[in-house]
Amino acid sequence: MTLWLNAGIIFTLLAIIVILFKWGNVRCVGVTPVRTFTFIAILFTSGLDVGLIMFPLTEFAGYADLKSNPEYSFANPLAIEFAYWGFLIWGFYFVTCFYFCVVEPKVKFFDIPWVKLINNVVIIGTCAFTAFLLLSNLPWYLPAIGDGESLVPSFYLIVFAAICFAVYSSTDIKYVRFLSISTTWLFIGLIGFMWLGAFMGSDSQLSAFTDNLALIGNYFGNIDDFVLPLNAYHEFYLFWWFAWSIMIGQFTSRFVGGLRTYQLLGAMLIFPSIPIAVWFSVLYQYHEAGIPTAGLKNFAMAFVGIVFVINSLDSLIRLYTDNLNMTVKRFGKFNYIALNVVALALLTLLFKLEFLEIQWVGALVIGLFFACAIFIAYSKFKTVRNIDSSPVDNKIDYTKIESAS
After folding, report:
1. Residue 320: alpha-carbon gap to chain centroid
2. DSSP 8-state class, residue 258
3. Rounded to the nearest 10 degrees, how much is the dihedral formed by the CA atoms of 133, 137, 139, 145?
4. Which of 69, 102, 185, 252 is 20 to 30 A from 175 via CA?
């Protein structure tokens, strides 16, 4: 699996270079373009899930334990956490977003029946994994509801409610903009709230915060060491990013609003990384200073984490139901909601039973990357070589999202 993952990473990085060299100045326009801030909000909230909120506080100590993990000795725990979530790995999303916005309309690789089947298996499986992550982490963040370790019926109800909410919001794409922008501001509010708890008691509040931010610079100084997996846990993260990349690319490509290719790459690498860096710097203070998060802080993080899950599920449900023609128009709203809620709830339980693993999904996506490249080289090379713009039918009209269904 490691060799397969390494091949996928190298292929993706080479694809970025080829895209910039061949189409770096192409204006990218999706079928439902939105303004850049809205696009970044959709990208950020759809492209991340509950792990961003809930994982760091449980991981800093492991990255600092050099006796058990000597491979982390070249970087500090904050830089390692950022490496697993920020900057370079958003290039995975860039490759797929550009491909689905500019190349796929000409190539139609994902219209091939067996490709469509695998693609939708990937999307549905990752939907369920997202819900499973929420379920498995709730005991730690909401210990007041249970014993802090076990899953109790209340946690299952919370996850079920999140699935129901996401399925309902996916019935109309107009909800995407509202959810994404609202969640972005909610996350900014959470950062501010947690910042006060971390730094207000310090004599040099700003200095302590900027010191933490500076630690992330260690990532950029050692960025080459994070390209390939450091260990099995890093492999898990990278496979997870691959699993998400193909569907987030499909979804976000709809909303690109006229950025040129090099601008799109910059936007996707930089803008999501800024709030991630700030958030991790705040959480690192809690870890280093031993500041407790029990009570309102845990509840706030869990709440925002749940909202992130709803955003992610909303976009992914919308994607696979469109691909499979399982639309509200075809089934009716009640049947559409019932079918998706039951399917996702059952698949979430399969992840809990360890019947499915996200690494398998990521490996499938890498296979699709290679298959697509072979298909283009064999039968669509001239077509792709002659691409010099987004599809001509895609016009910059920011009002389209209001009338889209």
Report:
1. 16
2. E
3. -70
4. 102
Residue ranges, the chain, pLDDT below 70: 147-148, 201-205, 354-356, 402-405
Beta bridge partners of residue 29, listed in sequence order? 257
- Give CA separation, 16 vs 88, 93, 240, in Å: 11, 10, 19
Are 23 and 386 contacting, i.e. CB atoms less than 8 angstroms apart?
no
| Amino acid, single-letter form, for residue 199 | F
The residue behind tokens 């696009």 is 39
Determine the Cα–Cα distance for residues 91 and 267; give it in Å rounded to an integer. Answer: 10
Bridge partners (DSSP) listed for residue 257: 29
- How many helices and strands (H and E) does the chain possess? 21, 2
DSSP string covering 76-144: -HHHHHHHHHSGGGHHHHHHHHHIIIIIHHHH-GGGSHHHHHHHHHHHHHHHHHHHHHHHHHHHHH-TT
Nearest Cα neighbor of 400 from 243, 61, 187, 174 is 174
Q: What is the pLDDT of residues 160-211, one digit of tens each?
A: 999 999 999 888 877 877 888 888 899 999 999 999 888 776 556 677 788 8
Q: Give the orientation angle of helix 205-215 with respect to helix 174-199, to 10 degrees.
A: 120
State the number of CA atoms in the 13 A half-sphere of 316 facing the CB: 33
DSSP 176: H
Listed in order, strand segments (DSSP E) in 13-84 are: 27-29
Give Cβ neighbours of residue 86 (< 8 Å, ≥ 6 apart).
Answer: 219, 272, 273, 276, 277
SS3 at position 257: strand
Residue 139 contacts residue 148 (beta carbons within 8 Å): yes
* Distance between CA atoms of residues 315 and 46, nearest Å: 6
Burial class (CB in 10 A: 0-12, 13-18, 19+), 336: buried
Q: What is the pTM of this model?
A: 0.89
Residues whose CB falls within 8 Å of the CB of residue 284, separated by 6 or more in sequence, listed in order: 56, 60, 77, 78, 81, 212, 215
- DSSP H or E segment with residue 259: strand 257-260
Give me the pLDDT at residue 22, please: 95
Contact 248, 126 (CB under 8 A): no
